[in-house]
Write a structure and sequence with these properties.
Shape of chain B: elongated
Organism (chain A): Paenibacillus phytohabitans
Number of domains of chain A: 2
Largest interface: A-B, 24 and 23 residues
Structural class of chain B: mainly alpha
Protein name (chain A): DUF2812 domain-containing protein
CATH topology of the domain at 14-86 in chain B: Arc Repressor Mutant, subunit A
Number of helices of chain B: 4
Number of strands of chain A: 6
Pfam families (chain B): PadR
Radius of gyration of chain B: 18 Å
Keywords (chain A): Membrane, Transmembrane, Transmembrane helix
Strand order of the largest sheet of chain B: 1-3-2
Strand content of chain A: 15-25%
Oligomer: heterodimer
CATH class of the domain at 14-86 in chain B: Mainly Alpha
Pfam families (chain A): DUF2812
């Protein structure tokens, strides 16, 4: 990259844990002339690009949008003053001038926003937990019963991978279910 | 509310009620928002994510449908007969509710004058 960098990487605390926080951070960055361009690889943060310094507000929507509806979905936002910026899976980020009508104006649709992702993260956490248990059993068997070195190594590595994924996946699920509970009444 | 079974909406949420009112004549997304704003003289303004979510939900429940025959660039929606029946019942229900409010206010006033 050149010495006068045009883009910057901004790490994210994770949208599941600090959604509003991250959106406010992006807004502050726009004030300083760093405008959101896209999610970074693997969604670990954002890539911002140099632009005119101008305060804008950012908002995240979580919505499964089939490809045939993509134009319609983005047009509805554009018509109400929300410009489309980028997506990662079902997560879409929009930008607008301060004071624009919020993208969600109804609690029931905010609930919908978090309903599906909560279920998905729950399934993911359960699968990771099951895999952890299975590899535990496999490790035990390969060590104590079969006494098989290769199998033992494989299960060792997979147990490590599972254990590394388990806590974050559980935390994401807990974060979303708390958010979901806040919007149910 | 309708969270346990999102496809059953015997009682419409305020936002869904306004969308159905707007779709008594066919409209596209932005026109729905504009119409609601005009109808309520700016009191109700609907965000695009709420509009999109509810349109898809109402469409799944068969209360509105996408106009297929038009080859306009923008998709327009229109209310179905079950949607019309639902919104008519809802208008009546909401009228009854505001009448109940008026009666309760009158009752309270009368009770006060009796006390004095």
């Amino acid at each position: 990259m050149k010495t006068n960098k045009q883009t910057r990487y901004i790490p994210s605390k994770g949208l599941a844990f600090a959604e509003q926080n991250e959106m406010n951070k992006l807004s502050r960055l726009s004030e300083k002339g760093w405008l959101l361009e896209r999610f970074s690889l693997f969604g670990s943060g954002f890539i911002v690009r140099r632009g005119p310094a101008h305060k804008q507000i950012y908002c995240l929507d979580i919505q499964h949008v089939p490809q045939k509806d993509e134009n319609e979905y983005r047009e509805m936002f554009a018509d109400s003053g929300w410009g489309y910026v980028c997506s990662a899976g079902d997560m879409h980020i929009f930008v607008a001038e301060p004071g624009t009508v919020p993208i969600h104006t109804d609690r029931s649709t905010l609930y919908e926003k978090y309903r599906k992702i909560t279920r998905t993260s729950k399934i993911f956490a359960i699968v990771v937990m099951l895999l952890t248990l299975i590899t535990c059993v496999l490790l035990y068997l390969s060590r104590q019963v079969w006494d098989h070195q290769l199998l033992q190594n494989i299960s060792h590595v997979s147990l490590l991978l599972c254990a590394v994924c388990f806590l974050p996946s559980l935390m994401v699920y807990i974060a979303y279910s708390l958010r979901l509970r806040a919007f149910s009444d | 509310m309708t969270k346990n079974n999102p496809l059953q909406m015997e009682q419409l949420s305020d936002s869904a009620y306004y969308i159905l009112l707007a779709l008594l004549t066919p409209k596209h997304g932005y026109a729905i928002m504009k119409y609601i704003e005009e109808l309520t003289e700016g009191e109700v303004r609907m965000g695009p994510a709420t509009l999109y979510t509810l349109i898809k939900k109402l469409q799944k429940s068969g209360y509105i449908l996408l106009n297929e025959d038009e080859d306009e660039r923008r998709k327009t929606y229109q209310i179905t007969s079950s949607g019309t029946a639902l919104v008519e019942a809802e208008i009546e229900r909401r009228l009854r509710m505001s009448r109940h409010g008026n009666i309760a206010q009158l009752n309270a006033k009368e009770a006060l004058t009796h006390e004095n």
